[in-house]
Structures are given as structure tokens and as C-alpha cells.
Write a structure and sequence with these properties.
Elements (H helix, E strand, L loop, with lengths): L6 H9 L4 E5 H8 L23 H9 L1 E6 L4 E6 H7 L6
Antiparallel strand pairs: 1-3, 2-3
Length: 94
């Protein structure tokens, strides 16, 4: 299974009790037991997508029930539970 690399991240995120979780790229690498690819410096790499044809990390974020809001320059990612993402995302009305 291609998504196996990101299964530990799915488990980690599912165990969190807060609506938001901030992880550094290094935290994520420790959780998955390997380096993030160079493509992770692209914002689109972090978009959650449940389609079977989606890349494994996108399916993993979706399966965990989180959206990712990366800060590429600071190498941090804010994971927001999908149910609360509309309240925190850039599309939220103020």
C-alpha cells in the first residue's frame, strides 16, 4: 500500500483531542520514520484529497480528518480538523 508511509501520521492525528495540531516538518519526519520529499515545499502537496487516485499524503490527511495549512518557509504545518477547518481557513467569512 502506497499510503503505508503516512499511516503513522494518520494514527497520530486521529489520537489528538484538539481541533488544531501544529507540527514541524521534522516532527512529521519522526512520526513517519523518513524524510519528506522535496515536493513538500509546494503548497499543493499538502492539500487533503480523498480520491483513490490522489497521492498518498493527500489521502492520509483526508483519512485522518484534517486539512493542512503549511508554512513552507518556517517548515511548520497547522493541521485543522476538517469539521473546524471552515472556521479557520482563508475562505471563512469574517
Amino acid at each position: 500500500m502506497a499510503m503505508a508511509k503516512y499511516a503513522p501520521l494518520v494514527r497520530y492525528l486521529r489520537r489528538q483531542r484538539t481541533p488544531e495540531v501544529t507540527l514541524t516538518f521534522r516532527d512529521i519526519e519522526r512520526i513517519v520514520g523518513g524524510f519528506l520529499p522535496k515536493a513538500s515545499s509546494d503548497l499543493d502537496w499538502w492539500r487533503a484529497e480523498a480520491a483513490a487516485s490522489a497521492p498518498p499524503q493527500k489521502r492520509a490527511f483526508a483519512e485522518a480528518g484534517f486539512t493542512a495549512q503549511p508554512e513552507i518557509r518556517s517548515e511548520r504545518v497547522l493541521f485543522v480538523r476538517a469539521a473546524s477547518a471552515s472556521l479557520h481557513g482563508p475562505q471563512a467569512a469574517g
